[in-house]
Amino acid sequence: MSKFRFNAAALTHVGMVRKANEDAMALRPEEGFWAVADGMGGLKHGQWASREVVTPLMAMELNGDASGVDSIGETIIAANAKIFAAATDARIQMGTTVATLRVFGSQFFVLWTGDSRVYLCRQGNLVRLTRDHTQVQELVDAGLLAPEAAKHHPNAHILSRAIGVEPEVKLDVVTDEIEPRDVFLLCTDGLTCVVADAEIGERLCGFPPEVATQRLLELALARGAPDNITVIAVGCEEITRLALEQPAEADA
User: Fold this and answer.
1) Is 249 within a domain?
2) Which helix (H) or strand (E) segment is 39 a member of?
């Protein structure tokens, strides 16, 4: 049994420019699993790709141990093969990012590829758990581009890794222990392209997930929202020992 209960809220919006929403999300709060995906390829192709990774994530079996993380990885790898085969047959390029959060017991696992992100707010401090898989981030990592110049680089959102663009895909993973009152945020780049990390922290840390997601979405829309926006906030509260224990039967 998990030592934590989870309060989650999710919002998605087409934004102020795009005609269709190519984002998708998986919500399985009873099993401690959430995911966001951001399709690419334009209109129907991007929509199809993001849903082809989210739909099997909603249907996969999740065990209450580390094997559930293996299931997530296997499901994403299978989706990659399907999307890549479809794109090859149609002679087009399409794909999707994916970022997932799995919690069980007192642990969390984050698996991702692409530039959709997962953040953790702990004790009022915001930490980005994921690293963008973009060409510009690779330049930053190599010391060829200053971090402050990366956001406004003309190739800032060209992905170096995504689901469906290569025959095989590599997933990165981060794992750690959960602490009481941790708050996670999963989001697509429709949020992060117009809202800075510091601003995300101001609107996420210390607020209920329902309030945090609404505030983040409203800020992105106020700034023109040139892309689809999806945000999922997950708050963690420790279950007290008293709540975990079954009430004793009264003596006869």
Assistant:
1) no
2) strand 33-40
